[in-house]
Model the fold of this input.
Amino acid sequence: MKNITPYILLISLVLFATKSIAQNPCTDDLNHAVELYNNGLYDKVFELLPSKIEHCKYKGTEKELAKKLLIGAAYESDEQEIADSLMLYFLKSDPYYKLQKSDPEAFKMGRKNFSITPRFSIGITTSLAFPSVDIIKRYTVSQAADYNQDYKFNFSTVSGFDFKYYFLAHWSLALQASISNKGYARSIIINDSTKVVYDESFTEYKVQPLLEYTPITMFNVSPYLFAGMYFSKYDINNGEIENSELPGGVSRGVLGRTFAVENNRNLINYGYIYGAGLKWQLRKFLVSLNVSQASDFLPYTKTDYSAVSPIMADILYIDDVFSFKSLDVNLGFHYIFSHKVKKKW
Done:
């Protein structure tokens, strides 16, 4: 006969564990509270559970069940004020609780009387920027040169931080801060053969307060509109002649020549921004995707300096007077760390 001692030992351990669970007094008391509630003995639920919640220190689903039984019993006993207070406490600890079929009916009805909206959120943003310029005035050095050339911008991304305050059901205030590295190049064609290319790069620091409006929410997805102002600071990284050639590729001797252009730039600027997008909320997390248009109020280049003292007139280049604008695609990830819970009526 085979040795069955290990099997007997295993079965004994299983039976002992099962018996221990069944004899857990805290679990038994909670099951008893369920029976009392189902039998309509709501006053007995009130007598039993408060002390047991404090003594047993229920966790997870047991703690949740005990709270729901108390709230349901309060509503069933017409203790409206007590029930609302308990429900308020319950929803503040778990603002995105999803009702279940097994929940007490009174608890379900009471939950529907409360609204939950975000209060504060923080997040990070990243953007693809498509900058361009508004030409205010063009200047020419050589009458034979073509100065009506487009500005070409480097591919740039924007990284930022977002803080948001939801002060009404459909309205919120956002404060965003961002940093980006940008640059542009401009070619001047002289006599259809000589080419001068000016290249400049800079770092932009931006702070922008925004007002957002969210009209509706369907399936956790919300369209929204926003508008506001921004304040920016530019740090010039370099301004240089990237290439200057005569016919046949002969250099004019200014290849790589750099220029101090800070005096010819408005390094502090401000402007307006507006846009629209969609946001998707999953409990305490929010993902947003939007498109925005921003335009500087002040020109990037200074009018008086360009007109009086062209910094590169000796090599047939002179700054236009222009301001920046940008079409951006923005992606944000936000965490809602505070909520507002209130009764609807």
Q: What stands out?
A: The longest helix spans residues 5-22. Confidence is low (pLDDT under 50) at residues 4-23, 247-255. Helices lie at 5-22, 25-38, 42-56, 60-76, 80-93, 105-111, 303-308.
